[in-house]
Amino acid sequence: MVMGRRPDVPTASVPVTAVDTVGLAQQLGAALIRVPFRRPLRGQSNPAANVATAVTREVLRTFMGYSSSLPIDEFRSIEVLLDDLCRVVMQPVVASHQVAQRRTEFGGVPGILYTPKDRAPDGVILYLHGGGYIGTSPTMYSFFTARLCQATNCTIFVADYRLAPEFPYPAGVEDTVAALTALVELGAPPSRLLVAGDSGGGGLANSLLLEAPTRLSIDPPVGLLLFSPEVDLLLDEPSVTENAPRDILPWNIPTAAYLHGADATNVEITTVDADVAGFPPTFVCWGGDEMFRDPIRRFVGRLAAAGVPHEAHESPGMFHVFPILMPWATASRVVYREATRFVRAVLDDATPIPSHALPAVSSAAGFA
């Protein structure tokens, strides 16, 4: 469930939420007015695509800046409104991809399970959504995860892990450990199981794998997919300031709520400096114009130095998590294609399993 629907998580009153919604609409209107003054025709693609990129960048940056400036209860109320809207809007979108979805839980962790319709899945993906460890919900990722489910022919569980500041580190890691363990216990063998995540969810995926030797009693997953992962919470790389004018992220990226006093140099949190020698084959993509560019490059360098099979894709002119925010863009279509190829290659190399094993995960979650 979205954070604002959880017990003991306070939300704002209806009048205050209404005022905040009006304020958000005004801010987004101002963002659109600014677009013509940002040289929107300039960019890596044709003029129409460049304008679409400029509008997306301006609107998302404004939304993030405004919402993160609100008190926590008001932030959660806006999040609930967006989640409710996505529940309505995304249902036909998911169905159009020949994908079924159901709200369920694994290991006590709620989330949404996506399964291919009328065909047995080839694998299972535990997906950890982004949001800087503080926001968004699985419902808001419906288009992306439905498309990924269709393209890879994998069952995907999008975990609704606990978020900060109500539940700071290590609550999210504990939830992902519980979900991953339950998936395996219910029939998803590690040889057909991948972990994926974007932004904060990508950082959480790394934390999960780094803590696996001490927290998990199962074999590690067979693959890892990372979309603009937040691998450095120190935020001290040159790209953090150099790309601030071009990214969708606010220049003052919040991390204190998640850390809540934890040491940002801990390699299980700032995974760019971690020992990744035990990582499975890894797919990483990011934008050349995003603030996390330099830490991600350094993380990829550590994968190479450790001998981890990996694929790295940097898209010039693109901002943070662009495949999720702009699925129509040429660079995004390339990422979808390459990520699908990576998943299929990893699963083709995995040990074959009985055909009934993977559907058991879906059945355990309530599917026929």
Give the gist of this structure.
The chain is α/β, with parallel strands linked by helices and 368 residues long. Helices cover 44% and strands 14% of the residues.
What topology emerges from the helices and strands here?
Elements lengths: L13 H21 L12 H22 L3 H25 L2 E8 L2 E8 L6 E6 L13 H11 L1 E6 L11 H15 L7 E6 L1 H16 L7 E5 L10 H5 L13 H4 L22 E6 L5 H13 L4 E6 L6 H4 L4 H20 L9 H6 L4
Parallel strand pairs: 3-4, 3-5, 5-6, 6-7, 7-8
Antiparallel strand pairs: 1-2, 2-4
CATH topology (level 3) name: Rossmann fold
Roughly what percent helix?
40-55%
Total domain count: 1
Give the overall pLDDT as a whole number. Answer: 92
Give the name of the CATH superfamily: Alpha/Beta hydrolase fold, catalytic domain
* Main β-sheet description: 8 strands, mixed
Tally of DSSP β-strands: 8
Counting DSSP H or I runs of 4 or more residues, the number of helices is: 12
Shape: globular
CATH-level-2 architecture: 3-Layer(aba) Sandwich
Terminal residue distance: 23 Å
Task: Give an overview of the whole structure.
The chain has helices spanning 14-34, 47-68, 72-96, 142-152, 171-185, 200-215, 238-242, 256-259, 293-305, 322-325, 330-349, 359-364, and strands at 99-106, 109-116, 123-128, 154-159, 193-198, 223-227, 282-287, 310-315. The chain is α/β, with parallel strands linked by helices. The protein is 44% helix and 14% strand. Strand 1 (99-106) and strand 2 (109-116) form a beta hairpin. It has an 8-stranded mixed beta sheet, with helices on both faces. Helix 1 packs antiparallel against helix 2. It has a single domain (92-364), classed as 3-Layer(aba) Sandwich (Rossmann fold), CATH 3.40.50. The protein starts with 13 loop residues before the first helix and ends with a helix. The protein has 12 helices and 8 strands. The model has no long low-confidence stretch (mean pLDDT 92). It is globular and about 50 Å long.
